[in-house]
Design brief:
single chain, alpha/beta, Hypothetical Protein Ychn, Chain: A, 5-stranded parallel beta sheet
């Protein structure tokens, strides 16, 4: 039986998304079965773009205040109105480090599984139509916990 690693991705920050992707792809390269459960602000990583349709007024306000998609995530510190994440992307490119999109594609090729939290999606007014390709499904906490129960490594980012 393969060793497993699970990650709860709760953050909506670029640097934490990079950590999640690097850990996911590294574990997958070591032969581990990896699944990532995106909840609350982490769901911004899985969004295609902003979508105000079929949302109540509070959900529309939340949508207005959150990033458009994974390429517009702010840094957790020193974001400086977006300049920090732009500088980080430039530094990553100069150091020939893969972008978030490239790491996500690699993770999918390595069979890392990405799941969206059904409860958080309900609160935020998101459904499968709002999600990028590559999301395995919108699942509940019991699905994640069943995976985590069998995992050797469980991380919260």
């Amino acid at each position: 039986m393969k060793e497993k690693m699970t990650i709860i991705f709760f953050s909506g920050n670029m640097d934490k998304a990079m950590a999640m992707l690097i850990l996911s792809t590294t574990a997958a390269s070591m032969g581990m079965d990896v699944s990532v459960f995106f909840t609350f602000w982490g769901l911004n990583f899985l969004k295609k773009t902003k979508d105000y349709s079929k949302k109540n007024i509070l959900q529309k306000m939340m949508e207005f205040m959150t990033p458009k998609n994974r390429n517009s995530l702010p840094l957790s510190d020193l974001n400086m109105l977006g300049a920090g994440s732009t500088m980080m992307k430039i530094l990553m490119e100069k150091k020939k480090m893969p972008s978030i999109d490239e790491l996500f594609t690699l993770a999918k090729e390595m069979k890392v599984k990405f799941y969206a939290c059904s409860t958080s999606c309900g609160i935020m007014g998101l459904d499968s139509n709002n999600m990028i390709d590559g999301v395995e499904g919108i699942v509940g906490a019991t699905t994640f916990l069943a995976d985590a129960k069998e995992a050797k490594i469980n991380l919260f980012i």
